[in-house]
Write a structure and sequence with these properties.
This protein is α/β, with parallel strands linked by helices. The chain is built from 9 helices and 12 strands. An 8-stranded mixed sheet has the order 2-5-6-1-7-10-8-9, sandwiched between helices. Helix 4 links the parallel strand 8 (141-145) and strand 9 (157-158). Helix 3 (104-118) packs across helix 5 (167-177) and helix 6 (199-213) packs across helix 7 (222-238). It is globular and about 60 Å long.
């Protein structure tokens, strides 16, 4: 039995989880949970034992100095709790960590043990995948569940995915078998600009989470960060005619597919969100903006490999002769074309 000390009785708690790694393209999902924790000043009440679940040669610990004293931070998964105020207050149990290297079933059982002890009513798992989606259009977010009843009542898709999966898919199935309602929200990140952070995808996940569990999330500077990110990618794409042409092809395909969505439910959802936010504004926040032009790399559509941004011409009007800078190492940006985790095919 899990012993919880210092955790008050929670009000209609919902668990929101995200994990760095294979299911977190552009760090969009883990960034969303970090945003919630920061905005509502979450209090960590538990951390899983890193020795049980992580290979430290894959996820290495870090050392740092605290007033001259050397300390070690181990990679793990932490749980915190935040209270959402308003006319109908409720609590969120936030789970943020790294996809475990081993013992996934035990890992999920431990998470479910906390959910049981805290009286969690539903688990929402956030994920992000690389897809053929243009950065200039709204980020597609899919809501999926393994529970057919939940799919009907909450207007979600019942997952039909078959193939390799990550901890998001395993945790969702563990919840289903334990009788805990579980939903996964997936944001699609453009595969040609996969470097984190991606504030636009993070914002899309938070907007969908608002709709799903009927809360208002203070967004802080995140909308401005998302706009700056898109402007930065626009500038990078404009420097390469091949990438610009590829983006235009994606835009045309997306616009054609979205024509039926330009009415009815889509408009109603946006109007409801506007009404919720009309009173009181977006609320305070301190989301950290990433410089969209610093360290951002575009994928070459023909080769499937990352391409560094072109350097600006020097005073003579010629491109500098310096060799191109290799992109930063990223397991999601190496080798073959990006993999697609457990989400329904479009």
């Amino acid at each position: 039995m899990i012993e919880l000390e210092g955790v008050p009785e929670l009000i209609d708690p919902v668990m929101v989880a995200a994990f760095e790694g294979w299911n977190d393209a552009g760090d969009a999902a883990s960034g969303a949970v970090t945003h919630l924790d920061r905005e509502w000043k979450g209090e960590v009440f538990a951390a899983l034992d890193a020795e049980d679940y992580y290979d430290f040669q894959v996820n290495r610990p870090t050392v740092w100095l605290d007033n001259g004293v050397r300390k070690v931070t181990w990679p793990t998964t932490r749980l915190s709790v935040v209270r959402v105020g308003g006319a109908k207050p409720r609590d969120l149990v936030l789970v943020r960590g790294i996809e475990p290297s081993m013992r996934w079933r035990s890992f999920c059982n431990e998470i479910l043990g906390f959910a049981h002890e805290l009286g969690v009513e539903m688990v929402v798992i956030l994920g992000a995948l690389l897809g053929d989606t243009p950065h200039t259009r709204p980020v597609p977010v899919s809501g999926v569940t393994s529970d057919p009843d939940l799919a009907r009542t909450m207007d979600l898709e019942e997952t039909r995915y078959e193939g390799p999966t990550g901890i998001v898919g395993i945790l969702q199935e563990a919840c289903t078998h334990a009788g805990v309602p579980a939903v996964s929200l997936w944001a699609a990140v453009p595969h040609y600009v996969s470097q984190p952070p991606n504030p636009k995808a993070t914002l899309a996940l938070l907007n969908r989470l608002e709709d799903l569990i009927d809360i208002r999330i203070p967004l802080g500077e995140l909308p401005e960060d998302a706009r700056a990110w898109q402007v930065g990618v626009d500038q990078l794409a404009a420097e390469d005619s091949e990438v610009a042409e590829y983006v235009q092809t994606l835009e045309e395909a997306r616009d054609t597919a979205d024509l039926p969505e330009a009415s009815g439910e889509a408009i109603a959802r946006e109007f409801e969100r506007y009404l919720r936010r009309r009173d009181g504004g977006p609320g305070p926040g301190s989301a950290v903006a990433g410089d969209p032009g610093d360290g951002s790399y575009l994928w070459d559509p023909s080769s499937g490999k990352p391409r560094p941004p072109r350097r600006k011409p020097d005073a003579s009007g010629e491109d500098p002769a310096d060799p191109p800078v290799d992109p930063p190492a990223d397991p999601r940006a190496e080798g073959s074309p990006p993999e697609t985790p457990d989400t329904p095919e479009p």
